Amino acid sequence: MSVVSNLEIVRNNIEKACKRSNRNLEDITIIAVTKYVTIERTQEAIEAGINHLGENRTDEFVKKQTQINNDDVNWHFIGTLQSRKVREVVDKVTAIHSLDRKSLAKEINKRTSKPVECFIQVNVSGEDTKHGLHPEEVLNFIREIDQYENIQVIGLMTMAPHVEDEQVLREVFRKLADLRDQVKEKHLAHAPCKYLSMGMSNDYEIAIEEGATHIRIGSELVGPYDK
Ligand SMILES: *Cc1c(COP(=O)(O)O)cnc(C)c1O
């Protein structure tokens, strides 16, 4: 299917989820995850009206950004970020969604001269295969990175487990939202923590109902691709 048709379906679902949860459509940012698709398909997404793109590997991120060369596009880095790759992307990102360790914060801080907007990745479900801080580590981590003036913690990010059980998904998203509230209430200058990056193709409607502000959608929007 064309991205235009996919987008229509996704937008319709988002609208319904917003209605169910009394939220405003304008508070949801759709990030199209283009990690497995070609430049042509990525271009098609931009032409369909999408201006937030997400990539999870630095090489592909730089390649797509260079080839697409469009100042209207906001680029999100959503994958595990190796410290030695930071300088290749740090001044090109709208936001990094995967801040998960102090050494990475230190490297980001060192490689740029202006604040970088970051989401802290949280492993809410506790699965071994998932990256991210454990929820109980987050507040301490935020205190520790206070020293890095170029790190701006704008929100929290998580990946829900790959399950069908709606209740399980809801619980994961709720925990992240609670944690976000706890951080936000502290009114820290380096961690306004207003946003929630959560929800993918399988679970974005539930994520929106639980407060997601940034949803990262790949297969439903630019796919299908095998995950
Ligand atoms: C691939 C990926 C997505 C999108 O996954 P879909 O299930 O295809 O929507 C979202 N977030 C991250 C971090 C990803 O790696």
Q: In a nutshell, what does this entry contain?
A:
By secondary structure, this protein is α/β, with parallel strands linked by helices. It has helices at residues 3-20, 39-47, 58-68, 86-89, 102-110, 138-144, 166-184, 204-209, 219-222, and strands spanning 29-33, 52-55, 74-77, 95-99, 116-121, 151-157, 195-197, 214-217.
Structural key phrases:
single chain, 227 residues, alpha/beta, eight-stranded parallel beta sheet, 9 helices, 8 strands, binds pyridoxal-5'-phosphate
Give the tally of β-strands. 8
Biggest sheet features: 8 strands, parallel
Q: Enumerate the distinct ligands.
A: pyridoxal-5'-phosphate
What portion of residues belong to β-strands? Answer: 15-25%
Oligomeric state of shown chains? single chain
Radius of gyration: 17 Å
Commentary on this structure:
With 227 residues, the protein is α/β, with parallel strands linked by helices. 38% of the residues lie in helices and 17% in strands. Strands 7-6-5-4-3-2-1-8 form an eight-stranded parallel β-sheet. Helix 5 links the parallel strand 4 (95-99) and strand 5. The model has no long low-confidence stretch (mean pLDDT 96). It binds pyridoxal-5'-phosphate.
Topology of this protein?
Blueprint: H1 3-20, E1 29-33, H2 39-47, E2 52-55, H3 58-68, E3 74-77, H4 86-89, E4 95-99, H5 102-110, E5 116-121, H6 138-144, E6 151-157, H7 166-184, E7 195-197, H8 204-209, E8 214-217, H9 219-222
Parallel strand pairs: 1-2, 1-8, 2-3, 3-4, 4-5, 5-6, 6-7
Pyridoxal-5'-phosphate (PLP) is lined by residues 33, 35, 56, 78-79, 159, 200-202, 216-220, 227.
